[in-house]
């Protein structure tokens, strides 16, 4: 526990976050984010979930932007989640194990995000240049690069913002370091020319030879002599949109308190089913990605249950088969 005076049961016998974390992970930590976060230079730490949980956890507090649940809870080992609301806990689950699978991009993003946040205690979106070497070491960047002063100087120059403020922004950090970790190609990471859609041998050459430049110039001269319009020479190939693959699965929601259909019989437990449709994750290594999920609406868009679900699947399309959306209270 972050506060040693805390107890597992709160005021009036209510369940605390420490008790819930103890039941789900075996550790009575006080927070739901991944790992531990330092509190500035005080030497104190806020302790979160230490590793990937077997059972997940989603909460209405995140939909209301009061907290941020980490990937260890959002992507558990089994497709079962405890859902927290203002009154009690309920359960959501799926029968398809693919729901818990993460793409290579997502796994790498979560790994880089955890390390970056460890050096960005104020969640300001940047880290100090002085912490860069330690961050790279935690990410497993090869010792050959870390011990090479010339390459480290080039990397520092590439990542530091132009004003020379001595900080590294998340956007540049992710775009460069994700390519470096994924390909282990230092020059490709610095170039910014990584293409996820091409195999390694088909990616563009970073440095063109003199003969390549000569052939390109000769082709331009030949086109001018033939009188080919400039617009025709420079016209890019037509854009062909690529349809993203979709993933659909059945998701079940169980509310032990249920709903009160008949006042004479009281509340009855409720089990509801919906179909969740997602776009399969695409490769976003080397591309601009926000460090936090911008899809949380703050609790003023969809019904509360769907708001909670979208903290895990922001772009999900949810079909309740014409039935009323279950209550989380």
Automatic annotation (TrEMBL):
Name of the top EC class for this enzyme: hydrolase
Domain Deubiquitinating enzyme MINDY-3/4 conserved stretches: 1-156
UniProt keyword list: Ubl conjugation pathway
Swiss-Prot/TrEMBL catalytic activity: Thiol-dependent hydrolysis of ester, thioester, amide, peptide and isopeptide bonds formed by the C-terminal Gly of ubiquitin (a 76-residue protein attached to proteins as an intracellular targeting signal)
Family: Belongs to the MINDY deubiquitinase family. FAM188 subfamily.
Annotated function: Hydrolase that can remove 'Lys-48'-linked conjugated ubiquitin from proteins.
Record-given protein name: ubiquitinyl hydrolase 1
């Amino acid at each position: 526990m972050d506060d040693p005076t805390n107890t597992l049961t709160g005021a009036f016998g209510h369940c605390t976050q420490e008790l819930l974390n103890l039941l789900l992970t075996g550790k009575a930590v006080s927070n739901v984010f991944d790992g531990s976060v330092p509190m500035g230079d005080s030497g104190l730490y806020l302790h979160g979930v230490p590793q990937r949980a077997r059972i997940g956890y989603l909460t209405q507090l995140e939909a209301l932007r009061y907290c941020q649940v980490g990937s260890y809870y959002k992507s558990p080992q089994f497709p079962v989640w405890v859902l927290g609301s203002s009154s009690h806990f309920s359960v959501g689950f799926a029968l398809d194990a693919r729901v818990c699978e993460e793409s290579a991009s997502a796994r790498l993003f979560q790994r880089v995000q955890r390390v970056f946040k460890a050096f960005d205690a104020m969640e300001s979106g940047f880290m100090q240049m002085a912490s860069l070497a330690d961050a790279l070491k935690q990410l497993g960047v090869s010792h050959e690069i870390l011990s090479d002063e010339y390459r480290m100087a080039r990397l520092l120059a590439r990542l530091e913002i132009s004003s020379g403020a001595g900080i590294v922004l998340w956007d540049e950090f992710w775009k460069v370091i994700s390519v470096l970790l994924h390909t282990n190609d230092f020059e490709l990471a610095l170039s910014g020319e990584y293409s996820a859609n091409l195999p390694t041998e088909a990616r563009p050459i970073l440095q063109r030879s003199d003969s390549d430049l000569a052939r390109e110039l000769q082709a331009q001269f030949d086109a001018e002599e033939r009188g080919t319009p400039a617009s025709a020479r420079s016209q890019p190939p037509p854009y062909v949109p690529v349809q993203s693959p979709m993933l659909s699965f059945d998701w079940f929601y169980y509310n032990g308190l249920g709903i009160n259909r008949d006042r004479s019989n009281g509340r009855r437990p409720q089990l509801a089913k919906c179909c969740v449709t997602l776009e399969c994750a695409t490769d976003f290594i080397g591309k601009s990605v926000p460090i936090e999920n911008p899809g949380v609406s703050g609790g003023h868009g969809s019904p509360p249950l769907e708001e909670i679900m979208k903290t895990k699947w922001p772009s999900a399309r949810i079909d309740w088969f014409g039935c009323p959306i279950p209550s989380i209270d």
